Amino acid sequence: MSKGLSSFVIIAIVVVVVLAAVGGALIVSHMHGSGTIPSPKPQNTTNSNTTAKNVSSPSSNLTISVPGTPLPYSKATNTVYITLIAEDISQPFNLNGTSDGKMVIYVPTGANLNITFVNEQSLPHNLNLVMNNTPIPNSADIGLNGKILFQLGTNMSSYQYSGIMNGQSVNGVYKDIQAGYYWLCCGIDTHAESGMWIVVVASSNVSAPYVIVN
Ligand SMILES: [Cu+2]
């Protein structure tokens, strides 16, 4: 082989290798592009962290006028979305910065309550829906102040001491709430008594859910 011919062969091999590499890269990127299906955003995930700060974010398609701040609501499924946060403020027994029943949530009778509870504090906390038989919590044990209907972040055998820790959140749905007056409160001993409770009113007079802070 002459020197000129071998140089030509080497250059030809280099060109072929480069073309093969570029072609391969294009094929791979095309396959990747066409083969990737965007995954849907998870909704209402359990035990996921959340950065939501407020109990409500006014829904853009809500047209019913309510006497307070509207809560996110699906009329089709009669589901009210409630986010409650034990905020990291000087009063450790708060929900969304409020204490002692100053927050009142109004929901339609029969609504499903989709509740997310977030703990931003160093103390453990949990959340309970209580059909209360006293106007305000007056016992260390909320079980002595009414009937516990639903719990998040705990269970009936340990609600007086167990809850979720700092940075954790829980989500759950309480279905078909009956007309009446309830608390959402922490069940850990003395926490509700110390202020960690809000009021829930279910009424057939409420057509769309809303929240008021007194
Ligand atoms: Cu608590």
Q: What is the fold's blueprint, element by element?
A:
Layout: H1 3-35, E1 69-70, E2 73-74, E3 79-86, E4 103-108, E5 112-119, E6 127-132, E7 146-152, E8 169-174, E9 180-185, E10 197-203, E11 210-213
Parallel strand pairs: 3-5, 4-10
Antiparallel strand pairs: 1-11, 2-3, 4-11, 5-8, 6-7, 6-9, 9-10
The structure holds copper (II) ion.
Description:
- The chain is an alpha+beta fold and 214 residues long.
- The chain folds into two domains: 1-38; 69-213, Immunoglobulin-like.
- Helix content is 15%, strand content 29%.
- It has one helix and eleven strands.
- The longest helix has 33 residues, at 3-35.
- It is globular, with a radius of gyration of 28 Å.
- Mean pLDDT is 80; it is low at 8-54 and 56-62.
- Residues 125, 186, 188, 191, 196 line the site of copper (II) ion.
- Copper (II) ion is lined by residues 125, 186, 188, 191, 196.
Summarize it.
This is Sulfocyanin. The chain is an alpha+beta fold and 214 residues long.
Q: What is the ordering of alpha helices and beta strands? A: HEEEEEEEEEEE
- β-strand amount: 25-35%
**DSSP strand count:** 11
- The number of helical runs is 1
Count of all domains: 2
Task: State the main characteristics.
alpha+beta, Immunoglobulin-like, 214 residues, seven-stranded mixed β-sheet, binds copper (II) ion
